[in-house]
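[Q] Does anyone have a clean structure-token version of this?
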Amino acid sequence: MDKHKTFGKKQYLVLFIVAALILSAFTGCTTQKQIETESTNNKSTTEPLTTSETVPTTEKGSVIVIYFSRTGHTKPLAEYIKDELEADIFEIEAKIPYTDDDIKYYTDCRADREQKDPSARPEIAGDLPDLSKYDTIYIGYPIWHGQAPKIIYTFLESVNVSGKTLIPFCTSASSPVGSSAENLHPLAQNAVWKDGTRFAIGTSREEIKEWLNSMNTQCELKLYIGENELSVNWMNNSSVEALKELAKGGITIQMSMYGGFEQVGPLNATLPTDDKQTTTDYGDIVLYSGNQIVIFYGSNSWSYTRLGHINLSRYEMIDLLSNGDVNITLRCE
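[A] Here you go.
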């Protein structure tokens, strides 16, 4: 009996060890599987998703380059601008692509017929970019019969560019920019249009860089009440850009007190707007109805386009603006 009991104890010990090893192996497999799963999950959340059909978007205030380039002469210039400005880019492509025969001028080709037809609007292939987060848009195109190809007209009539700054550039062997850019203005009347620029075929990256640098030489917008210049943090938007243009020769605005919290005056011009429901505070400068400038020494809630903020305290703003009508002067120097 003692022998059988001893043997039984050993047997139970062996069974216990075997069970423990099996359990350990199972647990190890489970742990390894969890690690692999976590590694896979981490990989899927850290690797970027990309698609060639999506135009990247960035914060408002950024730049996008939009271009049409049938023969490939405009494309490198657009890419130079994109690189220099770290901008996004979108190529306009025709749903029915243009063949070489389609652009053989004076043969009654497709381009001849479209450029003569005021109503011609060639269809664009694919989806158009979301421009809501861009403030500045460069628009590039070749010159066809002295004008932008009609597919540029299609694009401008298909997107919302209100309040944005549009900068046209074109390529040609010899034709000047002429009226090609100006004739696009009616298609986007609420945008701020800069002068169009023509580049020769084969223009270098350095020439584009020089052009961009020359455009960045801008005046500084200053605000005066009487002889006192006020420190202002101006917004970076197309409304302020248009206000700078208006103020290059200096403008004086007769302001009137209103509501016990603001001074308001007419600009005698209409600026692009990006109105949003806004609760203002002392020192805020806003655009109202596109043609009136308002400076607050109190607060109000309404639909405005923000222009800037005067760096004074509440009490300084009240002392400055609450004692009667004032005149302000804007100069871009």
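[Q] Thanks! Anything notable?
[A] Confidence is low (pLDDT under 50) at residues 1-7, 9-19, 21-61.
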